[in-house]
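Entry 12.
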Amino acid sequence: MRGWKAALGAAVAGVVAGLSGFIAPTAEAQDPDLAPVERFASCVNGGGQGNVLMLFDTSGSLYNTDRDGGRVKAAKATVDRLAESLTAVQGAQVDLAVAGFGTSYSRTLDWTPLNPETTGTINADLARYASKIDGVDTDYWSAMDGARKEFSSRNQEQTTPCNLLMWFSDGEFALNQRANDAEVQKWGGLKPWVPENQLRTEADVTAAVEAGRNDLCRPGGLADQLRSLDIITIGIGLAVDAPPESFDLMKGVSTGEGTACGELTEPKPGEFIMATDVDDLIYNFVTALEPDGNGDETPTCVDAECPEGTRTFVLDGSIGAVNATAKAPLDGTRIYLKTRTGESIELTQGNGDQDLGGSKLTWEWVTPRVLTFDLTRESQENWAGPWGIVFVAEEQSEELAKSSITLKGDISPTLVNRDELDLRVGEDPVDLRLGAVDRNGERIDPETLSPETTLSVKLISGGETTDLASGLAKADIEQPVQLDLDGINPGIAELVLTLDVTTQSWQQGTETIPGTRLEPRHASIPLTIAPPADFPSIPDRISFGHTEKEDPVTVKVPLDGEGCAWLAGETRFTGYPDGLDGATLTSPATGQDNCASGDLELTLDPGGLGNGSFTGTTQVMLAAKDSTAEPVAAELAFDLSQSRPASQPILWTTLIGVTLLGIAIPVGILYLVKFLTAKIPGNAVLAGSTSGPVDDAHSFTDNGVPLSVANLQVAHLTTNRREVNVAGKTLKAKMGAAITEPGYVVVETPGASAGGKTSLQSVGGNAKLPLAVQGNWMVALDPQRPVSGPVEVTVFTAPGAPGFAELLEDVRANLRTAVAKLREGMPPESSGPGNDPWSTPQASGASAPDPWANPGGNRQAPPARPANPQQPPSGPPSGQFQNPPQNDPWANPPGGQRPSSGPSSW
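Predicted 3D structure (tokens):
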């Protein structure tokens, strides 16, 4: 992993003060010398909007490879650390979303600002993935296409996107056979890239997988489309019972290596990490977004502390905090933090915290072998000096201990006169005033820095890199650096500042302990290079939006200033749906004789219908109002997202068409009307969740529901009103089976749930709501402890939250009754003092009664999950492989039969 792990830690721990509100650099302006996540970090440091998508494989094989949910523990630790880091960064903006893929792509958490106040919501959604291990397929194509759509939409909404995709899988791209049309529909419908293939035979499956691999990696395919949208991709593979080569395709999609995948491989599009066990997975996952320069391996001491088992790092006043992750080679290994005074503090199993007098120490063992700890400076007292991590085991191990230490410096490079710059082609050179600032944006005097501190500056424009200054010593950091725009085309260029910092050395008696070199701090600052005076200027990127048709799409590119523009005809498509390499970009303005003023009309003709994004660049010529001046060229990036309407198999068409045609036509019309009206009304849905204990006598909402309008998340209702994701819930509109039955909404949950208002309902064990979900609420039981565990309440309202107080009062008044109905007929759980949150301790030897148990319940326990989730379990014959409903806590693994458990609606 060495040499690639970028400075996202530097991005979130560094300073982005005063760097917001500018257009982000395009892919062509990216610094090829930076590692992939360093480019993401540099973009955030330059004032961009960070977008992080965590995407998880949900296939059934996870029952064998990661049964205890190590991937979830790692993701939650990553979120907590990243959110904590952001609190110290002025102006940093990072949103995070969560999605899964198995038979298809499904987002479970909408884009959510990442901060300490939202980690509870984010981690609650992540926790659900511990039980999401019932997917039939491992569908890489749908995973990447879903990510493409997510980021394409973000790019259309933002002027400063910085995109990062982290995706996890424990296996290769794989699909399973479908025995009939019902299974095709149940498992996500036909595959969009092979809509005629119903996956009936092994040959069908092989052909579909091969077609998917080809569409991912062909020139202009899905991998190239992701890269054209400036998405940094980090793949994390867990190879427990699969050979490493099984992940060659995943590595290829992420990096272009392994399996040769795509043409856009410079700059490097991403990274791939391989883990061979769950502990390795957690360590790699948590450290994936930390600087790698401080990663190291250390021998373990035996029985007592020793110098060779100690890793030393030096702190000084430029460091504000330390984040560390350690992995012990053996169970029972003790890890100590050695302070600057020589005191050793054992970081005991579990979690803990300690005030060290000038600093605060907190730690958590994510597993018995993987530890994270944070050391935060509160004052200069007892801070500067050598510290260390010590590993002590009861026996010698050939495997080395791993540790990644991130020193979070209070320093970052900045362009001081950024707001004063007026950069225009043809004008005199300008002076760039540079400097260093702390996390609050305050100037740092270069004289206070160590002698090893240096600053380098370069400009990237049109794919060309110009070194403006290299290795400036600390005394020269604030000296002006001249920028000459001679030969630079108008558009967006990127100014890359790199600050190399080493902490002060420490004198200990006659021994000098060298300072610790920090990960270089990069800031990529987009600069708008305007054309000469009297020339118009254009944006650097334009989006044609999304379409489900093959018709041409037209947009108007605004021209700022006098003069005119035309399409020069030099267009390069870097991405396009399969078979649509004949797409064209045209304009009525084709030369100076018919150039356009005010705005430039462009038309993208797809030349057909497919799934994917049309991405590319074109050249636009700009002419001054005074036509005697020579025209200048400007680069324009563009994209159009396209998808085919969903295609599903037709069931029993011959029988119904021949025998029931006379009845089917009028009934079909009625059902068509029902289908067309089965949509969630309104402009938006606001939702929020809270959870706590509930029994027949008490409820955590008895004194009021702990929710406020400020806590709610919003989902805007645009074109898709049949499936809406909000606050970690997926709302699916249904038209109702009977002709007279009104439409409704189903909310799938891991545990049993019900919804509505006052009189709640469920269908198939999931909450049932009216189509107008606003003004309603739902309750869901804990999937692991449905009788004794906490319950989750989710409320839905409309913009402005009309009747919100009355809605919360309805929850308070009816929650206990709703929970009692949901638990009716469920078997009792094992008694014990930990099962009753309301009880007092029992006398010695007495059993604590379970206030929620129903002794009369006789619900069956689910049978054991098979060792191979793609084969039927032992026991009663089950025929073809069947995947259980994803959110059914009583479901068996593929092939099992679900036991009856009382009514599913009431």
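Annotation: Residues 804-823 form the longest helix (20 residues). The longest strand covers residues 564-575.
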